[in-house]
Amino acid sequence: MRNTAKITTAVLAAGALTLGLTACGSDKGSAGDKDGPLVVAATPTPQGEILDFVQKNLAKKAGLDLEVREFTDYVTPNTAVQQGEVFANYFQHKPYLDDFNKKNGTDIVPVPSGTVHLEPLGVYSKSVKKLGDLKDGATVAIPNDTTNEARALKLLADNGVIELKKGVGYAATPKDVAKNPKNLKFKELEAAQLPRSLGDLDAAVINGNYALEADLSPAKNALVAEKAKGNPYGNFLAVKKGDEKDPRVKKLAKLLTSPEVKKFIDDKYDGAVVAAF
């Protein structure tokens, strides 16, 4: 049975995390019990949907007992792994994980199976149909976490809207904008809030999973979107260091990069999510 948990409270203060979760479904054993089911944290779309496909269609035949817990933020899936609330997670890319580990003193690592998929970041607007039509002084919202904020600014820079200082890399912030000919105003919001705030903004740079949840397609609705080729932002299965060789993790990693999952991604998301294997 699928076990789905949604985040209600996530407070990180003075190095201590307070979690409030509401869960439905059965909870068979401890997440840290290596003889029990493999409990995996994921954001709902597309990661939760991909895991749900694996659970319903592939896991039983592979001898894998899989439980999925969904979270709607980008912090709790990692802290839950670190604290043993879940055994693995599937929601993030390497630049984000590197930054998270550095800032929080965690030791979470990618499972060595490679990336599973890419969700192209896109610029969306309800007021203009072309990025170049943004008015002088327009407000553009971007994700407020370090790596996705830099990623959003790079997307705008790659499309000629702004120029960034040289060498800022994955740590770019609005302070690193070297040229801003349209005098854009940047509003930093939690990634999950961006689709809900789109109507109050001139444009927003939205992560692919949250765009999909809001029925926005990077392939069809974005003014511009990231290219898949050479993109470092593919998502992967991750665990606490030392758990990479757990037999259940290895089984899930193999299933997530199977031809069946690739076909599922291609058929369901029509370019809004791209298989990376």
Automatic annotation (TrEMBL):
Pfam families per UniProt: Lipoprotein_9
Membrane topology, as annotated: Lipid-anchor
Cell compartments where the protein resides: Membrane
Family annotation (CDD domains): PBP2_lipoprotein_Tp32
Segment forming the signal sequence: 1-23
Keyword Calcium in annotation: no
Superkingdom, natural source: Bacteria
InterPro entries, A to Z: Lipoprotein_NlpA
SUPFAM superfamilies: Periplasmic binding protein-like II (SSF53850)
Keywords: Lipoprotein, Membrane, Palmitate, Signal
Family designation: Belongs to the nlpA lipoprotein family.
PANTHER family membership: D-METHIONINE-BINDING LIPOPROTEIN METQ, METHIONINE-BINDING LIPOPROTEIN METQ
Protein name: Lipoprotein
Lineage: Bacteria, Bacillati, Actinomycetota, Actinomycetes, Kitasatosporales
